[in-house]
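Exercise 7.
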Amino acid sequence: MSDARNLPPKAPVVAGGVYECPVEFTLVNPGPGSLAINGGRCTTQTSFTTEPPLPLSLDKGETVVVRVVVKTRGEALRKRVWLDTEQGPVELRVGVDPKPRAK
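Solution. The predicted structure, written as tokens, is:
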């Protein structure tokens, strides 16, 4: 028998039985100089925003928060976000399962 208090929360259901699964990343520039992030893109059924907004330049030690929302009709999904930097793309991988299972 599972204890519901030990399960992660279920994702909220929006119109049409679609789940919205939010994920947040905090990225830090560990390099010796500034890093420009010029834009980004993501896979289908996925959207993202950043704080501060793109395009931006991060000095050493500065951070950017990337908020990703994956929409699904209940199936577990693996999605990606790519940030286009002056040193090449940075890939963020997201795995979501809106219906957690008992452990």
